[in-house]
Design brief:
The protein folds into two domains: about 90 residues, Helix-hairpin-Helix base-excision DNA repair enzymes (C-terminal) (Endonuclease Iii, domain 2, Orthogonal Bundle), CATH 1.10.1670.10; about 100 residues, Endonuclease III, domain 1. The protein has eleven helices and no strands.
Length: about 210
């Protein structure tokens, strides 16, 4: 796809999903950071069912830093990989308290230094909690960006760079939301619903995109 076709496809998707947004429930950067970590290998719906009790018991980094492993595990067990997640939640909270005065840092290089935080999680927090442009590459974004011909890479970091080159920074956050929404609704894995896809005429996967 050339840049015009790429822009046309994203514009069409944005028209289709004007309300696309982060599906995790949160009230501040700390809660979004926690919820994003819990969402690994777990649905957003399940995370949203778990976090109210978790945040009631441990409302901020200070409380989480003092938590016992067993206490946290009991509250997040249904999200999967609960032992590792609990360990990282407590360790992350301690770093935030000790090094950042209890405030979640608003810089990517500082976020990825926190236990269990990678670029995807960091970009989720930056874009949604702080309004700082970040391109989230999760399983849906990876799948769709390859199907659309926006990248040839399998590496999330490389895909992030490719997408950031394609689109202006002020569209990065919403691009992630749009691709995730379309990936969940239509462009599924392993079999996309191409026959019902409202942007099939612009999709290079079907071999129907024509130069303008």
């Amino acid at each position: 796809m050339n840049r015009r076709q790429t822009a046309d496809l994203l514009d069409r998707l944005e028209e289709l999903y004007p309300q696309a947004r982060c599906a995790l429930c949160y009230r501040n950067p700390w809660e979004l950071l926690v919820a994003t970590i819990l969402s690994a290998q777990c649905t957003d719906d399940r995370v949203n069912r778990v976090t109210p009790a978790l945040f009631a018991a441990f409302p901020g980094p200070e409380a989480m830093a003092r938590a016992g492993q067993d206490e946290v595990e009991a509250l997040i067990r249904s999200t999967g990989f609960f032992r590792n997640k609990a360990r990282n939640l407590i360790a992350r909270a301690r770093v935030i308290v000790e090094e950042y005065g209890g405030e979640v840092p608003a810089r990517l290089d500082e976020l990825v230094r926190l236990p269990g935080v990678g670029r995807k999680t960091a970009n989720v927090v930056l874009g949604n909690a702080f309004g700082i442009p970040g391109m989230v590459v999760d399983t849906h974004v990876k799948r769709l960006s390859r199907r659309f011909g926006w990248t040839k890479s399998q590496d999330p970091d490389r895909i992030e760079k490719d997408l950031c080159r394609l689109f202006p920074a002020d569209r990065w956050v919403q691009t992630g939301h749009i691709l995730i929404t379309h990936g969940r609704a239509v462009c599924k894995a392993p079999m996309p619903l191409c026959g019902a896809c409202p942007v099939s005429d612009l999709c290079p996967r079907l071999g129907v995109v024509k130069s303008r």
